Amino acid sequence: MTTLTTTTSPPPTSPSAPSSPRVTGTLRVTGTLGERYREILTPEALDFLTLLHDRFVARRHELLMDRQQRRQDVADGIDPDFRAATRPVRDDPSWRVAGSTGAPGLEDRRVEITGPTDPKMTINALNSGAKVWLADAEDASSPTWRNVVEGQLALHDAIRGTLTHTVDVPDGEPKEYRLRSTTLTDLPTIVFRPRGWHLIEKHMRYVDRAGVSVSASASLVDFGLYLFHNAHELVARGRGPYFYLPKLEGYREARLWNDVFVLAQEYLGLPQGTIRATVLIETLPAAFEMEEILHELRDHCAGLNAGRWDYLFSVIKAFRTRGDSYVLPDRAQVTMTAPFMRAYTELLVATCHKRGAHAIGGMSAFIPDRRRPDVTERAFEQVRSDKRREATDGFDGTWVAHPDLIEVARGEFDAVLGDAPNQVSRLRDDVEVGQHELLDIGSARRAGATVTAAGLRSNVSVGVRYLESWLRGVGAAAIDHLMEDAATAEISRSQVWQWIASGTRTENGVPITRDRVEALLAEIVDDLPRTPGNRIDDAANVFRAVALAEDFPTFLTIGAYSQFLVGSEVDQP
Prior knowledge:
eight-stranded parallel beta barrel; Malate Synthase G, Chain: A, Domain 4; globular; 20 helices
C-alpha cells in the first residue's frame, strides 16, 4: 500500500492568489495508487484538501449531529415547518441570487443529461447534444477508490479535450470513444456533483492538530480535487467551475458550502462568485428552507433542482414511524401529480423565479430500449408528459438519463421557451403553498393509489439488483426499463421498512411482515443468474440490513460502503 501525506502548505497554483493559509492537520492517502493517480493526488492538491478539512470538518460534524436531532423531532411528532426565525429573509423582496449572470454556459439549461464520470460515460454525455451534463460522483456512481480517482482523471482530460477511451470487442475491432469537439464551449456545460455531507472517503485519513484521526469528508475530497485541478482551466476555456450540491437539509448546510467556496476561491486566486452552485432540493427539511438556502449561497447560486426521487425517500424516512396515514403506495403510483409532490415542485419554481434563480426539473426514470420499439415509445410518451408538465409549470430545464431522450425533452421545452434561454422572468405569484400542502402525504392514497403485492415484489427485486450492481462498482443501472440509482434504491428499501413497521397490507389483504419479505427475498435471489464475479449474496445481506432490521439506517450506502465495497476487488485500481 502506498501512502501520501501532506503537512505543509505550498504556494497556490495561481500567481494572482494571495499568500495561502497554512494547514495545521495532515491528510494521508491510504488507497492503492494506480496508473496516473499521482496526477490527481499531487502534494499541492492534497494540501488544499487538508486546508478544507482544517477549516470545515468540525462544522460538518456538528451539522450532521443537528440532522439526527431533527429526525428525532419528527419521529416524536414535531412536523417540519417554515422557520419563524428566518422569516425576515423570506419577507425581504430586495435580494436576488447571482443566477447565470457572469456564468457562461448556464444561461440555457433546458435539457441536462446525468451520468457517472467514468471515461466512456463522460464521452457519451459530452457528445450527447444536451445543454448541460451533470457529472455525477454521487447517486449515479459507486464510490470505489477506482471510480473516485479515475473519474477525476476523466474530467481533467475531458476539460482539456484530450480524453479518449477504447473498449475491446470480442471477435471484432476495438471500439474507440472520442469527444466530438476539443473546444469546451461546443460541448454540454459540465456541472459536477460531489458526494453529500453525510458520506466519507475511507481511502484518505485526516488527522487534526489535536491528533484526532477520521476518514476524510467525501464532499470536500470530490469538490476539492475537481476545483483545484480544473477551475483555472475551465475559466480559460470559456466555462466556469459549476457544482450541484446534494442532500442539503437546511440553510446552515448551505452556509457551510458557501464558506467553502469563499475560502477555495481566495486560496486559488479566483474572483469571488466564479463558482456557481445549483442545490438539489431533495430532502423534506430543505423544502421548508428554499429561500434561506438561496440567500446563504446568493453570490454563488445558479438555481435549485427538484430532486424528486431522493425527496420521496426523505418523506418516507421522515414519517416512517408515524403510522398508516403517512404510508405511501407503490412507488410506480406516486406520480408528480400527487398533491404533495405538486406542491413541492410549484413552490420550488415560484421560489427560484422570485429570486432570479433557475428552476431545474427532475429526472424521469423511464429509459428507451433500442431493441424494443414498444418499450421505447412508452418511455417517450411518459417523458413527453412529464416534461410538458414541467415546462408549462415554469421550470427552466430538466433532466434526462439517456441520450435518446434529449430530443423528446427538448421538444417540450422548446414549445414553451421558444428562442428564450429560460423563463426565470415568469413569476408564479399564483402559487400558495404552506406546511399543510407539503405534508399532505396521504393525498397520494386518497387519489386511489394502493400498496400491492406486485409493488412489494418490485421493491425487493429492484433493491437487491441495484445493490448487486453498486457492489460491482456500477452506480447507474438499467433495471426493468427504468434507470435506477441510489435514490430509487432508497425508495425501494425504505418503503419495505415502513410497510412492515406500519402493519400495511397489500391489496389482497395480506399483511407485509418480515417473514413475508424474507421469503420473497429468498425467492428473488434464487432466480437471479449467477454470473462470474456476482455480488448477489452480499446484496441480499445489505438489503436485509437496510430494509428488515429493527432500526432504520439513514442511508443504505453508508454501511454497504464500509463493509462490502471498500477493499473489494472493484475497489482496487
